[in-house]
Design brief:
Helices cover about 25% and strands about 20% of the residues. By secondary structure, the protein is of the alpha+beta class. The chain has a domain of about 90 residues. The chain has a 3-stranded antiparallel sheet with strand order 1-4-5. Strands 2-3 form a two-stranded antiparallel ribbon. The chain is elongated.
Length: about 150
């Protein structure tokens, strides 16, 4: 009888400790948080962790793992669909491109540099943001980077 009570007591203690260890962390950020997880230019702000000399060394190590951007071309003013080598499909419409003044570009060649980052490893190698603006972990099927040059 005494042995059964001891086993039940130990089982109860183990269950309580297991449940306490499974508690979710508090991921909420205060409005006074000095770190901004996303910057409009895609680079971490200067006060963000990971912007020192050690991070520069890590970025240089990952440089060799980065993907080479694909160069795709289309014509402005017409509908077109372009495909990346990893399955990304991008559709451009006749009014998709504007110049710096806000005027719609209706003619000319458009050169598109496409980088597909469809796995977590590819996103890390490209130093792509993996958090939302509220600090939550990004849950997606990957990211693409599109750079457009009008010629």
């Amino acid at each position: 009888m005494k042995r059964t009570q001891n086993v039940l007591l130990l089982t109860g203690i183990f269950a309580v400790l297991s449940l306490a260890a499974c508690r979710k962390p508090n991921n909420s950020r205060s409005t006074n948080d000095p770190y901004t997880p996303v910057n409009p230019n895609g680079q971490p702000p200067t006060n963000y962790p990971g912007t020192g000399a050690a991070s520069a060394t890590l970025r240089s190590l990952f440089k060799e793992l980065r993907s080479t951007p694909q160069t795709l071309t289309t014509t402005a003013g017409v509908s077109s669909t372009l495909y990346g080598t990893k399955g990304t499909r991008i559709t451009f419409y006749p009014n998709s491109f504007k110049d710096a003044s806000g005027n719609i570009i209706t003619s000319g060649n458009i050169v598109i540099k496409l980088t597909e980052m469809l796995t977590p490893g590819a996103m890390i190698a490209e130093n792509a943001t993996t958090q939302t603006t509220t600090g939550d972990i990004l849950r997606s099927g990957g990211q693409v980077k599109i750079v457009v040059v009008v010629r």
